[in-house]
Amino acid sequence: MEAPTTIVQIILYSTHMASPKYFGVTLVLSLSYGATLVMRSEDDLWALSTASNLTCTHNALSLLDEPNQYPQLKVVAVAGEVCPVALKDLWAPRVKLFNLYGPSECAIMTHGSRLSLTESIAIGSVLPKVHCYMLDDNHRQVPSGIL
């Protein structure tokens, strides 16, 4: 992250992504780099015009018509649902686009990956300091890379 950076948090406060644990990560990240953190407000579009980093659902990102209208936007992280291929293809050439995943019952992000035009969309790799075990239909652990 480079200064000056403005991170816009437009996730609805009622969702798990706005939980204290996730918000705490966003807050610490912002403060650690001297960034400005803009919280959801009535004037979200104004905030987006100044943002360099954006975390949102793919539905919110799809409301932004054209990536070139946001030239200062450098990093976009989508989470909450699977990112549609068309949205990835629209945004990946213009910004560093990340797909984040986490089980909603845990209110955390556990996996992430940078999306590119040439690769399919996946939940990504386990994030640092996260332990993940994949189980088969019989609740037995499967080797890494199988699923």
UniProtKB/TrEMBL annotation:
<feature type="domain" description="AMP-dependent synthetase/ligase">
    <location>
        <begin position="26"/>
        <end position="145"/>
    </location>
</feature>
<keyword id="KW-0597">Phosphoprotein</keyword>
<dbReference type="GO" id="GO:0031177">
    <property type="term" value="F:phosphopantetheine binding"/>
</dbReference>
<dbReference type="Pfam" id="PF00501">
    <property type="entry name" value="AMP-binding"/>
</dbReference>
<dbReference type="InterPro" id="IPR000873">
    <property type="entry name" value="AMP-dep_synth/lig_dom"/>
</dbReference>
<comment type="similarity">
    <text>Belongs to the NRP synthetase family.</text>
</comment>
<keyword id="KW-0596">Phosphopantetheine</keyword>
<dbReference type="GO" id="GO:0005737">
    <property type="term" value="C:cytoplasm"/>
</dbReference>
<dbReference type="GO" id="GO:0044550">
    <property type="term" value="P:secondary metabolite biosynthetic process"/>
</dbReference>
<keyword id="KW-0436">Ligase</keyword>
<dbReference type="GO" id="GO:0016874">
    <property type="term" value="F:ligase activity"/>
</dbReference>
<dbReference type="GO" id="GO:0043041">
    <property type="term" value="P:amino acid activation for nonribosomal peptide biosynthetic process"/>
</dbReference>
<protein>
    <recommendedName>
        <fullName>AMP-dependent synthetase/ligase domain-containing protein</fullName>
    </recommendedName>
</protein>
<dbReference type="InterPro" id="IPR042099">
    <property type="entry name" value="ANL_N_sf"/>
</dbReference>
